[in-house]
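Project standup — Tuesday

K.O.: blocked on the structure for the chain from last sprint. Re-posting the sequence here as requested.
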Amino acid sequence: MSGKRMSASQLARKIQRAIRTREMGKRAYKRADALIAEIAKEMKPGQIVQVSNERAYELIDNFAGKDTVWNPCAARRWELEEVPVLKVE
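H.V.: unblocked you, prediction finished:
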């Protein structure tokens, strides 16, 4: 690290900011997971929905055809993956 070092109070504030930001991220992921679970009830895996002129999303079932999913951390069943929008002229 080059330059001037942080004071103890600056370091403490930065740590607090990092923890708050991490907690906000956890809450945002929890809300997103709940929304995706609702979406998965309305969509079929592989279905594509265009949400704007430039964006479309496909519902992916990460557990499709699998009895066991190996992952060292939490594995989400459903994902929304952005896919190319097909332009019809």
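K.O.: great, moving the ticket to review. The first strand starts at residue 48 and ends at 50. The helical segments are 8-42.
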